[in-house]
Amino acid sequence: MHDPGSPGGVEIEIVPASDSLRSNDGRWLKQVGSLLADLRRNEIEIRKEITPAEGKKGGAEAIILALGSSGAITAAVTIFRAWLSRSEDRSIKVKGRVGDREVELVVTGRNISEQTLQMALGLGKG
Questions:
Q1: Which of 11, 12, 17, 80 has the fewest CB atoms nearer than 10 Å to its CB?
Q2: How many domains does the chain contain in total?
Q3: Bridge-based pairing state of the strands 90-98 and 10-18
Q4: Is 20 inside any structural domain?
Q5: Rounded to two decimals, what is the model's pTM?
């Protein structure tokens, strides 16, 4: 999702996932909290958006990162790589928009790179 407020800036949604822990498991929530704290420490803007679920209280929570510069993308990739390397069962789904096209990429400790993320989000050339 390109951020019109900053030249070349981009917003992405991330969905951390685990093959071994449920999304509402306290241990998993602590691990995701650690990821978000690392991102915030590196001055990456994070916001959470709630999409209401019909007939239920609350709803689905989306984690949105504002990556306003190539330095922010580099920092995010470094943090993602470190967080993913702590356990082989982790992954992060990255969603964004390039023009009118939705982009979705699942990153693991083995396939994440700054170049891959920039190419997926239409920010770099192959």
A1: 17
A2: 1
A3: antiparallel
A4: yes
A5: 0.79
Give the pLDDT means over successive 10-residue stretches in the chain (126 positions). 51 92 93 96 92 72 87 88 89 85 83 72 58
Task: For residue range 84-98, list pLDDT tens digits in order.
Answer: 988 889 999 999 876
What CATH number is given to the structural domain containing 70?
3.30.70.260
Q: Look at residue 52 and tell me if it is in a domain.
A: yes
Tell whether 69 is covered by a domain. Answer: yes
**Exposed / middle / buried, residue 116 (Cβ in 10 Å: 0-12, 13-18, 19+):** middle
Kind and range of the H or E element at 78?
helix 70-85
Is-contact 14 92, C-beta < 8 A? yes
